[in-house]
Amino acid sequence: MTWMEPETFEILYGESGWFKEEGDEIIILAIESSCDETSAAVVGDGLNVLSNVVASQIDLHKKYGGVVPEIASRKHLELINPVISEALQQAGVEFSDLDAVAATYGPGLVGSLLVGLTAAKTLAFALQIPFIGINHIVGHIYANFISNKEIQPPVLCLTVSGGHTDLLYFQELGSYQLLGSTRDDAAGEAFDKVARVLGLGYPGGPAIERISQEGNPEAIDFPRPFIDENNYDFSFSGLKTAVLNYLNTEKQRQAEINVADVAASFQQAVIDVLTSKVLRAVENYPVQSVILSGGVSANRTLRDHLARSLEEYQLPLYTPELELCTDNAAMIGAVAYYKYLKRDFSPLTLAARANLKL
C-alpha cells in the first residue's frame, strides 16, 4: 500500500469516520530535533502529555562554546530511536495506538531537522497514518496552552529564543498577526554572545541570569535599542556591541571589570526593551491574556518584571512550565493535534527548512 496524500485520505476515509473527531482520544507521537535536543513525546488530545522524553546535548557542545551542527546531527542519529522507544514505553502505548506522527521541519539546523523529520515520515509511511509537519516557533507558543488551559483570547504573545524575538497578536486561537520581530540578533542570541565574551560559558542565558543575581542592574547604562520607536520591532546587535565596547574600553584603562554588574546591566536592558514593546501593544490592542514563549521565557527575572508591569493593566502573564520552555516534543504534539482536527496533514515530500518563518 503506497502513501496517500491528504486529499486521498479525506476521500477514502473522511466520510466513513476513519479519522477521529474532537472528543475522541487522539494520540500523536511528536518528534523535535531542531537544534541540540533529541525529543519525542506522546500527546493525547493535544494537551494531555503522556510522555515527554528529552535527551540534551549541552554537555557535548559546552566545550566548544556553542552548538556544532555536524556533531549535533550525528548525536541525533544515535539518540532518535532510543528516545522514541522510551517515549512510547513511558506513555504505555504501542505504534498501533498512534493516530498520527508529527515532527518539527523548521526553523533550525538543517542536519538536525532532517533526523527527526525523516524518522517521523518513515513511521507515518510504515503505519499508514497521517504525517504532520510543525513550525518550531509555533510549538513554543503552544507550550503555554499545555501549562495554562485557562488562557482566553485575544492573546498577545512574546516569543523570545536563541533565533527569534517576535511579538504576535491572536484575535482568536488558530490565526495570528505578526506585530513585530527582531531586525538583527535575537535576544537569546545576544545572551549567548555576551556570556561568551564574559567567559560565562554555554548556554549563555542561564549563565547570565545566575550571575546577574549578584550584580547591580543599574551599574552600567547600556542602550535600549528601539525602545522609543513607535513600532513593535526589536534590535539587539547594537546592545551586544555596546557591551563589547564597554569591556574593551575598561581593559584598555586596565580597570577591574565587575562581571556580575555587566551581566545584570545587559540583562536589564534586554528586559526593558521586551517589556516596553509588550506594553505598547497592550495599549493599542484588546487583550485578555499575555503569554511568554521560547527558551528565554525560562528567565525568572524577565517573568517577574513583565508580570509586575502588566499588573497596572490587570492582565495575567502566562508562561510554560520550565521543562516546556526549552526545546521539547510535547509542544510539537500540541500544535499537531489542532492540525489533525483540521485535516491539515503534510506530504512525505515535506523538506526541512532551516530558515522557516512564522
Provide the gyration radius in Å.
21 Å
CATH superfamily of the largest domain, called what? ATPase, nucleotide binding domain
Helix percentage: 40-55%
Output the CATH class name of the largest domain. Alpha Beta
Shape designation: globular
Q: How are the strands of the biggest sheet laid out side by side?
A: 3-2-1-4-5
Number of strands: 10
User: Kindly state the mean pLDDT as a whole number?
Assistant: 89
- The structural class is alpha/beta
Q: Major β-sheet, in short? A: 5 strands, mixed
Q: How many helices in DSSP terms? A: 12
Strand content: 15-25%
Distance between the termini: 35 Å
How many domains would you count in the coordinates? 2
CATH topology of the largest domain: Nucleotidyltransferase, domain 5
Low-pLDDT regions:
11-17
